[in-house]
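Incident review: delayed structure delivery

Summary: a single-chain prediction request sat in the queue longer than the usual turnaround. Root cause was a stuck worker, restarted by the on-call engineer. No data loss occurred. The affected request and its eventual output are reproduced below so the record is complete for anyone auditing the incident later.

Affected input:
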Amino acid sequence: MKRKATYDELERQIEVLSRESQRCLTAEAAFHCQNTYLKALHETALGLIDKLDKEELLENILDRAALLTGTEHGYIYLREPGSEQMQMQMGMGFFKSQLGRKVSIGEGLGGRVWEKQAPLLVDDYQCWPKRIPDKSLDKLRSIVGIPLKSDQQVLGVIGLAHVDTDRQLNQEDVMALELFATLAMIALEKARLYADARRELAERKHAEEVLRESEARYRTLLESSPDPIVVYDMKGVATYVNPAFEQTFGLTRKKLLGKQIDFVPNENWPETKAAIKKMLSGQKINLFETRRMTKDGRVLDVQLSSTLYKTADGRPAGNIVILRDISAKKQAKKELQMYHDHLEELVAARTVELEKANLALEQQIEERKLADRSLREHQKELRAQSHHLEEVNTALRVLLKQREEDKHKLSKMVRRNVEELVNPYLEKVFNSNLDTRQRMLLQILETNLKNIISPFINQLTGHMGNLTPMEIRIADLIKAGKSNKEIAGLLLISYNTVLFHRHNIRSKLNIKNKKINLRAHLLSFEK
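Output delivered after worker restart:
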């Protein structure tokens, strides 16, 4: 790896260059030329070393390179290590319009300098066979490219040019620009190192801030956790307990921190030691059920989870233990088991009852089957009897005609007997001291007697023989001028039932949905 030239070495090179210039030029001309270069390089060295901002430094480098060569046109190509292209990141004069142009290795002047890793001077770019075929570059004449190298790698190219045919760059400009490029590379490296240091410092500050936020977040998490948490060092000494630990076990931080906590019941020490051994071997303890004592002597059932935490170099530093009081949970589980057992007993008893019910149901099904068979046999008998009845009906029709005549005579006789032998006594009973229910029953009795002897019944039956007995009684009361409410009270039925029967009576008398008064229609049967 090639060592970078120091500032003193650069100064010595400048002196050698000065001596060579003096031998080539006349004493006076050499003096002025060398003085100009030395002054420019000295000012450049002082000006560039103090620049730390990359963009400002690039602009300053290009300005000073242009002053060294006496031109107003220049550019700087830069590339990232490992990239296959360079990009023009700074331009002045003619090249200001070329900012952003990219070239590959061997392409154009910049690409050739990159490929050769050496300066390249072209007297007339317009006639140069390796030029980039772009008409926008036709104005370029004399042009020079100097590589910016670091560790034998080209990281960029400085280019200066003239657009006038009467102005030319020469080898003295090349030599001066090579020294200038070395100074510029030192300044760029310094700026890069400064940028890296600043970025590293910013990243470190950000990491520290993130670490502080993380610590605050985890502390908040520990402090607000409803489960008791204790942190031990490798000697089993408590270094932290959260508020939930203090509240659950009735112990304060002041009495716990820096000491070993004695809250393991004697009978639980063997399983606790086995869990500690497992944890120290690198295994995690997850939801291990055990018991712990509180300050007031109560023994709690707990679930314990524990894991080691390590230092930055990977050595075990201690362990974090999270406990959860499951005493209430275990008690609830016990009660639930008792309830479950009780339910099992109830289910068993219910199963026995269902088996008995199934047996009874099977018996009922068998009885139903027997009843069905008996019904079918009875239906056969009924069909035979029906045939016999049809023959009997023929004889009965003759008898019925005679019966109607006898019935008419009997009706007159019954009506006369009731009027003479029953009604007088009913009136005397009505006039006696009766309670409401007795009076209502007596009214029903009187109504039924009237229905029995009323000729309206016969007339109504003749007009519409499909009325039911209840419909006949209601029709008779309607004819007598009774309201629906009075009919309901007399017959001991609901008001809606009366309305239902009225509707059926109108339907059977064919006056449904007709504007005909039902009472008037019934009275017309007596005419």
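Verification: Residues 327-421 form the longest helix (95 residues).
Action items: add queue-age alerting; document worker restart procedure.
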